[in-house]
Specification:
Elements (H helix, E strand, L loop, with lengths): L29 E3 L2 E3 L3 E3 L15 H9 L5 E7 L17 H16 L4 E5 L8 H4 L5 E2 L8 E4 L2 E4 L4 E2 L5 H17 L4 E6 L4 H6 L14 H19 L4 E5 L13 H15 L6 E5 L6 H10 L3 E4 L8 H9 L5 E4 L1 H5 L3 H7 L25 H5 L1
Parallel strand pairs: 3-4, 3-14, 4-5, 5-10, 6-9, 10-11, 11-12, 12-13, 13-14
Antiparallel strand pairs: 1-2, 7-8
Helix pairs in contact: 1-2, 4-6, 6-7, 7-8
Bound molecules: flavin mononucleotide.
The site of flavin mononucleotide (FMN) has 23 residues, from strand 4 and helix 10.
Length: 383
Amino acid sequence: MKRSDGRSGSQGIHRDPAGLGPTVSLYESAVFGALQLSNRVVMAPLTRTRADDDGVPTDVMVEYYRQRAGQGLIISEGTWPAAEGKSYPGQPGIVTPAQIEGWRSVTEAVHASGGTIVMQLMHGGRVSHPAISGEPRVVAPSALAAPGQTRTPAGKADLPVAHALTAEEIPLVVEQFAQAARNAIEAGFDGVEVHGANGYLVHEFLSPVSNIREDQYGGSPENRARFAIEVTGAVAAAVGAERTGIRLSPQHNIQGVLEEDDADVRDTYTAVAERLAPLGLAFVDVLNASPTGELVQHIRATLGAPLIVNSGFATPTSREEAEALVADGWADAVAAGRPVIANPDLVERWQSGAELNEPRPELFYGSTAEGYTDYPSLESVRA
Ligand SMILES: Cc1cc2nc3c(=O)[nH]c(=O)nc-3n(C[C@H](O)[C@H](O)[C@H](O)COP(=O)(O)O)c2cc1C
């Protein structure tokens, strides 16, 4: 496949493990495990910080997700399975009864509009701060700080040196993920996605730079893969593998979670994929600059689940890129982030070739409806 950006896909590798055939269109329906997708445009997980101070989803969040139910699958914003995992003010949780009830309003609105929605379970690990989480410590595989600062309600602050989870504490965190998954299903979600990407807790275990442990969770690629495998296994056991996916971002090199040795990266993600393959997951969602490249397609072939891809932050996902990735068989679906923020009816716009609204990044992490639920739909413009 020749791409306009000059990247070309690897030839001769196993594609299409889901048996969907190479001529499927982005706008065709799909079945990923227990999930029914009306099309293959997935709303990427997007932190938007509009929950209340108790991590409870607000009415404006209900409206935001309802507006976006036309995407074939919504993956919710990263949602914390434990207060220690809260990374940003305004980020929602899935721990308390009030949070479960709040999310129920979201899932009911999405379902009433014909959508399918899974929750991204995001434990921020060392990318957090006591002034944000209200907890005395931040946790990580090793006693290291993520580089840089974070914005707390009291102003900017350095990210703190983490408490290295002990081998005795790790099963408790794994269980927090499993309980959060049960809570998500109770709240009406169709499934869950383990956030194993972007420099947060699960990803921190995968990298030899953020994980310098010397026990069974550190050192070799297999050991560093163990936490991701245990979390995903526990979540799948709790709510069913057919309702469980995982997001991975190999070589994203973000938040000090560096993966710079190609051979080590391949071994680490091979270990993850080989051990998750027997579960029969609903999907694997990979963020990587080269979705058609050898590494992503190797993960797909090894894991054997339907593949959702996203080519990362460099440029917003375009219609041409998304259509080609699915039509040429490189992916079963494409996750779009910023285009869905700005265009609640993105599928309709892409399919009809309509003009797109421009995103307003300065309002991505706001706290009101502005820049959130006020992007016009085609219908409202034409009315
Ligand atoms: C405002 C914003 C918030 C994001 N929050 C999350 C998140 O909670 N979880 C996650 O896995 N990725 C998150 N991402 C990454 C997106 O899912 C996506 O990978 C990225 O935006 C690139 O896709 P795009 O070019 O279609 O926007 C976020 C991105 C943006 C712009």
